[in-house]
Amino acid sequence: KNPKIIHANKIKEYEDNYINFSFPIPIVEKNGIIKGVLSEKNNFEKSLSNSIILMAGGFGKRLKPLTNSTPKPMLKIGENPIIEIIINSFIKNGFNNFLITTHYKSHLIKKYFGDGKKKKIKINYLDEKKPLGTAGFLKTIKTKRLSYPIIIMNSDILTKVNFKNLLKFHNDNKSDLTICTKKYTLNIPYGVIKNNKKKVINILEKPDFKFDINAGIYVLSKNILEDLDRSRYLDFDTLIKTVLKKNKRVISYPLYEYWMDIGKI
Predict the structure, then answer these.
(1) Quick count: other Cβ atoms within 10 Å of Cβ 111?
(2) What distance in Å separates the CA atoms of residue 156 and residue 83, rounded to the nearest whole number?
(3) Beta strands in 44-138 (DSSP E)
């Protein structure tokens, strides 16, 4: 009796107010005649200017010989390089401002994507002359050139996470640093003996242990970059520990969506 519809002459209003639907909506003319259908694939997406940093400078040693002539982010899954699948996912979520950190065979990445105009996005590059650690590139970035909060992601991850929801979660929780986590189950294929000194007190037969692991996706507020020690080699685990010591607000964002780290052949 009360169907959800969009009047054809009001589509511009819906676009301006960023209306997002998760199901098909009929577009109708004044007389109720259906003119078309607005599907989930062509929802009105408001462009988000937040800086997206993709880390693509690694050597991909665990994937040799595949990476002898190709940087890991450019290895193809189906018809597209891993990093292009990631970029397309961000574009689908409304993001258009990218910074790619490069080192190993960086010219191949730059040649493929250029400045991003073919995808109607903006791509800049940050070349590491020498490895600075997994988070070391943050020390070389001019913070005023970024749009905050920024999303940082390893460029060897396949995931269906909704980056727009991730950013909203970060903002709603007033987080300084948000770390995406994924449940990881470690199965012990043996009976595990629990001892108290020499006395056996229990046995667990082939137990499963569950952990929250770092999923390689982060959201950072501006103050994190402003407080960096720019004189030392920096990995992300060190950065996280440093931020915790400074009593910054660090929040975990559990991923329930598909997630895979492309690490080994």
Answers:
(1) 9
(2) 7
(3) 48-56, 76-77, 80-81, 95-102, 122-127
